[in-house]
User: What shape does this take?
Amino acid sequence: MLGQSALVGARSGAVANRVFIYEVEGLHQSDQTDLNRYPVRQSGTVQFKVPYARMNEELRRLNRLGARIVSIKPLTDDADADA
Assistant: This one.
């Protein structure tokens, strides 16, 4: 286990199921976004739901697309807030 974190594999179900909302601006149609199967809207900000496990991957992708991240917030479940 040389070089591995002690927390690898110690993920609980709650940690693995966390979702975050990325709010980004500056997305526009370009050579990179032309590779997508859908057009990119050019107005204001856009929000994406991102699972915890894909946060770094999504940050890199948005950076390549030239987007600026406005905020990252955890997605809260209303049922949890009422309890």
